[in-house]
Design a protein that fits this description.
Elements: H1 3-13, H2 24-44, E1 48-49, H3 51-54, E2 56-60, H4 68-79, E3 83-87, E4 93-98, H5 102-116, E5 124-128, H6 130-158, H7 161-185, E6 188-189, H8 191-218, H9 230-240, H10 242-266, H11 273-302, H12 306-324, H13 349-356
Parallel strand pairs: 1-6
Antiparallel strand pairs: 2-4, 2-5, 3-4
Length: 385
């Protein structure tokens, strides 16, 4: 078995783990810092909205020897607005100018035809009115709001309201970071960007629900045991799905990175950036929020419940009593065999852990699955052949 696979198996069995939930204040601080940076970038620079949302015109030219800089200068001079010029195959140009009226678009088309020395009808022009672009933008926001509401309703029914709230916070966290990155790098926001945002929200939700499902199963009948608190069970559930989350994220990020860095960067296919940046940033943020935000937040909310407070108090009391006797509060005694202590009295640690769904590997005493006093391997009870 590979090292990563072996680690995943040990995490799943609870043999090793990292205290994600216990260090939640660190993750909250990091997320707040990143979110503030994204909001500042959004407030200072704003979003570079595409013509589908702001209105404008797109001019597609025939093959020409005119450079992209010359075409940009001509378009901006005739329209009075900033132009984006992309080189296409066969020396063709795609010139995009936002916030143009139909009259301004006609003037810009005539100037480009004159500069390129081609007939006016050879330049294909697509005009998007500002009112239509505003309508599309409103529809996109409405769709996003409806998506969020449906997510909260589903999670509240399938799990509970605390998990629904935590998932909603994680989704808003991912959305804010992705939009903030778009504002900071100045990439254009197009319908492809909206598709990317909806895609990464779905991915983030999937990753979060996987952890929540394990947490729901592990916390079943939690108040009937005194071995683990809710936060500890949440942390064990998180560790058991950690390797799966990492593998899923890496596999998802590799093709998106190819689109963003190779397709959009080296090959100059700028239109790929619209969706690939949203996917890349959103997938990374979604994996982070599922591990460091959603589950710790659920534990935070759940620990405020009176029943969970009482459980935590009982767990601490039991551990304090065990510590006073020189025993561990979460491990079975060294001489425990099949859940019974040295006097043959059945202990409750194993039963408690089973109720929580987080039973760890049992320690075996000498002579049971180990080596016997003669240095050989122990045999099961029964007749010898």
């Amino acid at each position: 078995m590979s090292k990563l696979g072996n680690l995943g198996a040990r995490l799943y069995r609870g043999e090793v783990g990292y205290d994600f939930v216990g260090k939640r204040m660190i993750w909250y601080g990091i997320s707040i810092l990143i979110t503030i940076t994204a909001i500042v970038g959004l407030s200072v620079r704003g979003l570079n909205m595409g013509i589908e949302f702001s209105g404008g015109a797109v001019f597609n030219t025939p093959p020409t020897s005119v450079s992209a800089d010359q075409a940009k200068e001509t378009a901006e001079g005739s329209s009075g607005h900033t132009a984006i010029v992309q080189k296409l195959g066969d020396k063709r140009l795609r010139i995009q100018v936002s916030e143009l009226t139909p009259e301004q678009s006609r003037t810009a088309q005539e100037s480009l035809a004159k500069k390129l020395d081609v007939p006016l009808d050879k330049i294909n022009t697509d005009i998007v009115g500002p009112s239509w672009g505003e309508q599309i933008a409103n529809k996109a926001w409405q769709g996003l709001a409806i998506f969020m509401i449906l997510v909260v309703i589903y999670l509240a029914i399938a799990f509970e309201w605390r998990m629904a709230l935590a998932a909603l916070v994680a989704l808003i966290h991912d959305l804010t970071i992705t939009v903030g990155v778009y504002a900071l790098v100045g990439f254009e926001v197009t319908p492809g960007t909206v598709i990317g945002l909806l895609t990464i929200l779905g991915y983030s939700l999937y990753d979060t629900v996987v952890v929540f499902d394990g947490l729901k199963e592990g916390a079943k009948d939690i108040t009937k045991q005194t071995r683990w608190t809710y936060s500890e069970i949440a942390n064990r559930s998180l560790n058991s799905t950690l390797v799966r989350s990492i593998n899923t994220t890496v596999v998802a990020l590799l093709p998106v990175a190819g689109l963003l860095f190779i397709g959009g960067g080296f090959l100059g296919a700028g239109m790929l950036n619209d969706i690939s940046l949203a996917l890349f940033v959103g997938l990374a943020a979604g994996a982070y929020s599922s591990i460091f935000i959603a589950t710790p937040l659920v534990a935070d909310l759940k620990e405020r419940d009176p029943q969970m407070k009482a459980l935590a108090k009982r767990v601490r009391a039991k551990r304090a009593a065990a510590a006073a006797k020189g025993e561990s509060g979460t491990e079975q005694p060294q001489d425990a065999v099949d859940g019974r202590d040295a006097q043959g009295v059945e202990g409750d640690d194993e039963d408690d852990a089973a109720a929580a769904g987080v039973v760890g590997p049992r320690r075996q005493s000498a002579g049971r699955g180990g080596r016997d006093g003669r240095g050989g391997r122990g045999r099961p009870s029964g007749k010898r052949r």
